Design the sequence.
């Protein structure tokens, strides 16, 4: 199974384990890859819709993995059984939806469960949710695909106090000095600067302007600190 850069980076964050659960699996690409590469022994591929699971079943059969990957209809973690897997992937959806899935299934996440999250948008909101709900970010990576950069967050239950700066920029990204960090920061600085320019043309947007300027200062600080690295 050949994965895209984004999915490959997600898979690289999965610890070697007995069982993996992929929430929102779509066509079961990651479970198939993880089994082929001996990252896990078995997997549960979950999706809210039957259509993607039908395609997933065909892919699983084609790779000869019907006895090791099961598919399951599940709205988030609704049909996941507590303790069923050591690793849970929730990838390829909005950050706010990821937060909703986590909060609705938070009682099913044990202290030993490792989560791999890949929000398409609202990364700050995911980091803040994790901090506010007693999760610790153990690693974070960036992946580039189709000229877009995506965040992959690896986390588990635990206590960590992050500053607002760290929640926006990504504490682990800074510590790891990710190879895509400079480009990521430059894109953020450009995008937020454009937002500010747009807001400055409108009336009664002072609060939004100030908030975006504060966020911009965070990214500029992180970028300036790593230009020479």
Sequence:
């Amino acid at each position: 199974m050949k994965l895209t850069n984004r999915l490959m980076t997600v898979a690289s964050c999965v610890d070697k384990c007995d069982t993996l659960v992929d929430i929102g699996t779509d066509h079961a690409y990651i479970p198939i890859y993880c089994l082929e590469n001996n990252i896990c022994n078995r997997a549960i591929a979950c999706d809210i819709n039957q259509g993607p699971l039908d395609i997933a079943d065909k892919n699983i059969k084609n790779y000869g993995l019907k006895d090791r990957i099961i598919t399951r209809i599940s709205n988030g973690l609704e049909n996941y059984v507590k303790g069923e897997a050591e690793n849970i992937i929730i990838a390829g959806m909005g950050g706010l939806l990821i937060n909703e899935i986590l909060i609705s299934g938070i009682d099913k996440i044990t202290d030993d469960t490792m989560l791999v999250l890949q929000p398409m948008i609202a990364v700050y909101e995911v980091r803040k949710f994790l901090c506010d709900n007693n999760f610790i970010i153990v690693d974070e990576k960036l992946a580039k695909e189709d000229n877009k950069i995506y965040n992959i967050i690896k986390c588990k239950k635990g206590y960590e106090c992050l500053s607002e700066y760290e929640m926006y920029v990504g504490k682990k990204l800074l510590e790891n000095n990710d190879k895509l960090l400079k480009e990521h920061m430059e894109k953020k600085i450009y995008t937020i600067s454009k937002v500010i320019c747009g807001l400055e043309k409108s009336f009664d947007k002072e609060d939004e302007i100030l908030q975006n300027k504060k966020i911009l200062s965070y990214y500029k600080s992180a970028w300036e600190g790593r230009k020479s690295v």
The CA atoms of residues 48 and 75 lie 5 Å apart. DSSP finds nine helices and seven strands in the chain. The chain has a mean pLDDT of 96. The first helix runs from residue 5 to 12.
